[in-house]
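Hi team,

As requested, here is the filled-out complex form for the adenosine-5'-triphosphate run. I kept the field names the same as last time so the parser does not choke. Let me know if anything looks off before we queue the next batch.

— J.
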Amino acid sequence: MLELHDLTKRYGDRLALDSVSFTVGDGRLTGFVGGNGAGKTTAMRIVLGVLATDSGTVTIDGAAVTATDRRRFGYMPEERGLYPKMRVLEQTVYLARLHGWAPVAARRNAAELLERLGLGERLDDTVESLSLGNQQRAQIAAALVHRPEVLVLDEPFSGLDPMAVETVQSVLSDAAAQGAPVLFSSHQLDVVERLCDDLVIIADGRIRAAGSREALRAEHGSERWELLTTGDAGWVRGVPGVDVVSFDGGWALFEASTESARHAVLAEAVSRGDVVSFGREQTTLAQIFREVVR
Ligand SMILES: Nc1ncnc2c1ncn2[C@@H]1O[C@H](COP(=O)(O)OP(=O)(O)OP(=O)(O)O)[C@@H](O)[C@H]1O
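And here is what came back:
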């Protein structure tokens, strides 16, 4: 388990991290979400040891992270760091070799990973000749080729097309399934929502919410209800104690002042025989995000 304890970091007068603490559990895909300048990159750089913290600690399985531990980390920095003139396979193999892999195993693992990431046809191309999206895939291969035990990725999904997002999702899920704690930052709330087990939301250098996706949804659960029918749901407006928030044909989103008012809506819909679904409005990550960063 990777833990950040009470990290504080200033750049001059600017407080970039203010007592930041959170946990990335083993085997958990943890999405790190925050607006521009919220402090994500700063926190990730401190985890990787490329930036010193003013105070606080980073631990792995309860012990302070050492340089030796960090050799088992996989890191995708914000500023992408591949050699532009080097060929894709050659570069990926080179990085595996730097982590101590034997030549044959390094080549096999690099080729397999690049193939999986959709770069099988590009192995002999130079990095600079690749499209930005493909450079991004090569960067992901570079972070993963030594089968790291901990993954920290700064915006791994930026610039990827929807198919590539799916591919990278499955590669990261596999790394987590092997037991690695996986922390990645993203502005793509829909991707984070779909992929993550856990979420950490940061704004202005402070953690605003953290926990499992289910726990955050339950905590920030909506008090609104949704009814979908095959008929016209306009009658919901007339149910006493019900306030319709939005309505479109057979769909109605409403607030009910009492439980019995809500039950009355369901009972009426059932009696009309046209219910497709009825339930609490599903809170999206975008809604939770807006609520906690306010
Ligand atoms: N080297 C630096 N010198 C001065 N201020 C910095 C430096 N690096 C970051 N900052 C400031 O620290 C704050 C946090 O920046 P950071 O890059 O960690 O945010 P971020 O969440 O990664 O943002 P983004 O999503 O835009 O990449 C910002 O206000 C930023 O301007």
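Two things worth flagging: The chain has a mean pLDDT of 93. Residues 11, 14, 16, 34, 36-42 surround adenosine-5'-triphosphate (CB under 6 Å).

Thanks,
J.
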